[in-house]
Amino acid sequence: MDFTITKREEDFRQELRAWLEENLPDGWLEGNRELPKEKDKYSEFLRNWQNTLYEGGWTAIAWPKKYGGRDATLMEEIIYHQEMVRVQAPPLVNYIGIHMVGPTLIQNGTEEQKEQYIKKILTGEQVWCQGYSEPNAGSDLAAIQSSAVRDGDRWILNGQKVWTSFGHLADRCFLLARTSHNSEKKHKGITAFLLDMNQSGVETKPIVQMDGRQEFNEVYLTDAVAYDSEIVGDVDEGWRVMIALMLHERTGIGAEMFTLEKQFNDMVEMAKEFRVNDKPLLKDPFVRQKMADFYARSRGSLLNYYRNLTNTLKRGKPGPESSIDKLLVSELTKEMAGFIMSIQGHNGVLWKEDAPVDTYWQDNFLGSFGQTIGGGTSEVQRNTIGERVLGLPKDMGR
Ligand SMILES: Cc1cc2nc3c(=O)[nH]c(=O)nc-3n(C[C@H](O)[C@H](O)[C@H](O)COP(=O)(O)OP(=O)(O)OC[C@H]3O[C@@H](n4cnc5c(N)ncnc54)[C@H](O)[C@@H]3O)c2cc1C
Question: What's this model's pTM, rounded to 2 decimal places?
Answer without folding.
Answer: 0.93
